[in-house]
Here is the input.
Amino acid sequence: MNKRTRTLAIALVSTLGLGLGLAGCSGGSPAKGGPERKNPAAANTGAVLGGTPQKGGTLTVLSNQDFTHLDPARNWVMPDMDFGTRLLYRTLVTYKAAPGAGGSELVPDLAEDLGTPSNGAKTWTFRLKEGLKYEDGTPVTSQDVKHNVERSFSPDLPGGPDYAARYLAGADGYQGPAQGKHLASVKTPDARTIVFELRKPFAEFPFAATLPTFAPVPAAQDKGPQYDNRPFSSGPYKIESYARDKRMVLVRNPHWNPATDTVRKAYPDRIVVTMGLKGNQIDDRLISSAGTDASSVAWAALRPESTPKVLTKPEVRARLLAESSSCTEMVQMHTGRAPFDDPKVRKAVQYALDREAVITANGGPALNDPATAAMPGSLFEGGKQPDTLGIPLSGDVEKAKQLLKEAGKPDGFATSITVSTNDKGIAEAVQQSLGRVGIKVTIETVDPSAFYDTIGDTRNRTDLVYTGWCPDYPSGSTFLPFVFDGRYIKEKGNSGNHSLFRDDATMKRMDEIAAMSDGAAANKAWQELDGQILAKAPVAPASVERKPLLIGTNIAGAFGHTSYGGQIDYATVGLKDPSKGAN
Amino acid sequence: MILYLGRRLLGVLGVLLAIAAVTFTIFYVLPSDPAAAACGKACSDERLEAIRAHMGLDAPLWRQFADFVTGIFTGRTMGTGQYALRCDFPCLGYSYENSENVWDLLVDRLPVSASLAVGAAVLWLALGLTAGVTAALRKDTLTDRVLMVGAVAAASLPVYFTAVLLIYGLIRLTGLLPYPQYVSLTSDPLGWASNLILPWVALAVLYAAMYARQSRSSMIESMAEPYIRTARAKGLPRRTVVVKHGLRAGMTPVLTLFGMDLGGLLAGAVITESLFGLPGVGRLFYGALTSGDQPVILGVTLLAATFIVVANLAVDLLYAVVDPRVRY
Here is the structure.
């Protein structure tokens, strides 16, 4: 998932101020590259805040935006996937409701188990549980899951995950069920069995089956593009009202059977999402946590300028979740164009980059961690990135100069970087750090709405771009191929592989790993490949952002879910005292 | 009169058509691709083409424009097979972002912008005209100076400054008022007013200052006219002289200004609505701009243009009422 899906707006002036302020607070033992960064917001990482909720009451979600898509065929934004699949519709498989690394564990949801592979993992069979019902009491059938998978191919319903399109056999040219055509590679021998026939082995299919594409949509309820406004519930809540960009009210789905669901606790009676609020209003309301705001959680990340008001007050800081977003932000170099076609020059950039400065410019250590590998920590053992680069966080200017000298550029050179307007402060940090070795960087800022179109135009784009990638599920297969497989490069509309890295050895290895049927071996291989790619230096990893979310004083059972980009797990959040949640 | 009105209405249509054409062309030449934005990441070329065709973006510009214009009057059917959507008169298309009918979106948001615009207009007319007329009648006195210095100061305050000041002072610091949350006039008139009072004030401060200055100079001019002297010489009461003869003639330029301002604001006060989190046309427009939602941008642009040209027409017709010398 690329950065298009995130809306964390960073204000330059205040972030700089904040970063400087926090630098003074950081302590701990010195480590390589300067003092160890102590994250003042990390105390709650891996913890469930507020204890166990009581059943009942109204949970309010304070949001600065509308949902992008809640239609399960179109929902591919981390927070929206969390909201949709935890509250409104169930998928064949889902993630355990657990903080920290436990959140990447798969558990059956609609299906009885995590699926049965056969034919060398080219065929996957799932059997639905008994007693699954929609909000009108009608049974959930395997045909409904097939129908939604088919819908995801429709050009009328764009935007959703494309795993079905990439893996299902005979899907070329298929354009959805609207014209009465169906996919032969998805079979439903009975109302509870669904069989997927794939064009190539896919050991990680159960991970893909957590995506909303694999939620049921009964054909009778399918209203095409309008389904987005009123998805039909198979989860614990149904939509009572939804005024787009204003307010959504969820009430209990009386036909949801908790006996069939090991994940969702459905504590609140009602969930109200208030949209279109200003970010500073959300921060202020949750900091003071007065009245019904005590029973509220933030949808939008805490704004960098509000961070000092939170971190300086222990009572408020105790209510801040700051789970990793699992998205690595990188300086990506155009490997097909001089001087970045020379690996030595690219390595020099890796050494020259001051990641401390980048982090300071982006809100300080409470809001992001330095990146020491390409894949985020959630894809490594123990949920932590290894220090693959072995470069001090503030860079190694001498080594960088040495590399430039070896590359025949002892005096550096001039180049330019494209960043989204939100990331201008980061670009300045990059500019200053590369300036230390004589690389003169010109910054080109682009409005967020045009950013991906601009950097996707490979012929006219700048040498450097600053962007990142977030894995769809905890596997290297949803990161490295998207970011470093040369076969994904497109002249226009290029996405993911912004270093335009085309390395035969890397691509060959990716194919080998993708064909592995042993998931653990594949994971280890992806981790090794991460290091091998970084040694060729197509990118300079900079930071992994966190998702800082405030909760009210009456909130319980809250944690940032690692598989949903650090968003609050809506399966378990509720109220300490339901009588206070009236709205 | 009828001939004049007919001619003007034709002109209005021409202006709207030209604005639609220009907006359309701007989107066409922009590098952004709504189909790619809708398709999402790692989109295959084949799927991108299918989506482009579905959105009608594969047709030449003239064709897309012709479909849009005829669609407004005759309606259009979008999508295929079971997923086809019928968009009836007046069809402005569907939002790329959330598949909502653009006309319905505008109708839904208009009451918020209208509430904001009309409430602020009442406030700024009352404040601005009172200050302007008072200053004109007491020209070169201390009152005049104080009022005009105040007006210059208020006019220099951008609305985002006033708004932030009000939010900080009256909401965050003192907690006197709640964060504005729009409630409709019909469901809760008191809630409607109390939630809108801050946005009204923020907007009215700026406009009242401009109206005070404008009405002062107009009043001074009209009060120096020979017919005012005549009216005074006839022994008419001061009130009649000022209101019936002075103010009425002096209001023509103020009316012109008012028509433009109200027309523009009815189609959304982008900054004020965004700052106060009011779900009006302005915020709709801002959201559409940031996401490149062309049908919504086009819809709001046409709505704004319609309000402004219609307000202009109304003002021109009102001249005849205000100033007896004008005849059509």
